[in-house]
Design brief:
Layout: E1 12-13, E2 19-20, E3 30-35, H1 41-48, E4 59-61, E5 67-69, E6 76-77, H2 91-94, E7 95-100, H3 114-131, E8 138-140, H4 141-144, H5 158-163, H6 188-200, H7 212-225, H8 236-248
Parallel strand pairs: 1-5, 3-7, 3-8, 4-7
Antiparallel strand pairs: 2-6, 4-5
């Protein structure tokens, strides 16, 4: 493919060869946010367009707010890898990937510049309008791949985006003392908590054991929804925040 008209007005187009058709003709109904985790934006852009990388994304948002589209939204970009959400494992077939230039742990998780975040907001708003993406379907890479990925990280401004009408979010309950669930715990309280995580969308086995898969799912949840402390412990703040998020979900169609 030599080029295409951008789906998002104002985007530059740099075609990546790393894409294919969506499985079973699926249409995208989800947005996955990533950070690049590389030293520079140009290096990330080049890697996402290199055939040997076998990775891509629909969009890349540079620190100055410049947006580059590399794969058409109707096509399946190779951005999410192995993961799942609400029991569906082919994340790439139901999602649109947005890579956000940020070195992540390479430089101590620097903040995302205002111009960049504003561009992400405008892009996400446009995608949501075009594909009818509901707020609870705007996710972190770490949500769909707990333990394997941590991006876009706990410094990503989910709360600000929610104020702009993007994403599903509630003000997290404050971190404080009280009862908690952690590694090694078992029984009905753990099973109930696992059921809540699964109901929201996280992929884990409901077995009544607070095991490693549960801890990783809790960490992923905290990175997105309770970033003040990311420790994999289901404390009172984490449980309350999850409960309020579930209550705020739209009613499922009958």
């Amino acid at each position: 493919m030599s080029g295409f008209a951008p789906d998002h007005a104002g985007s530059e187009v740099r075609v990546s060869p790393n894409f294919g058709p969506r499985a079973e003709g699926r249409k995208p109904d989800c947005i996955i946010m990533h950070y690049t985790g590389m030293e520079t934006g140009p290096a990330a852009e080049a890697w996402l367009c290199a055939p040997e990388s076998e990775v891509s994304s629909h969009y890349l948002v540079h620190e100055d707010g410049r947006v580059v589209q590399m794969v058409r939204e109707a096509d399946r970009a190779w951005h999410a890898g192995k993961g799942s959400w609400r029991g569906v494992s082919d994340v790439n077939s139901f999602s649109i990937g947005i890579e956000i230039v940020n070195p992540g742990p390479l430089e101590g998780f620097p903040p995302f510049p205002d111009a960049q975040v504003e561009a992400v907001a405008a892009l996400a708003r446009d995608i949501c309008a075009r594909w009818s993406v509901s707020p609870e379907r705007i996710l972190a890479h770490s949500d769909v791949a707990p333990g394997r990925k941590i991006d876009p990280g706990e410094r990503f401004p989910w709360a600000w985006l929610a104020e702009e009408g993007i994403g599903h979010y509630v003000q997290p309950s404050p971190v404080r003392g009280g009862r908690f669930l952690a590694m090694g715990d078992s029984g009905e309280p753990v099973e109930a908590f696992q059921s809540m995580l699964s109901l929201y969308g996280y992929g884990l086995e409901i077995n009544g054991l607070f095991d490693e898969q549960t801890r990783l799912a809790v960490e992923a949840f905290q990175r997105h929804f309770r970033p003040a402390r990311v420790d994999g412990v289901a404390d009172q703040s984490t449980i309350e925040t999850l409960h309020r998020l579930l209550k705020a979900l739209p009613a499922s169609p009958i």
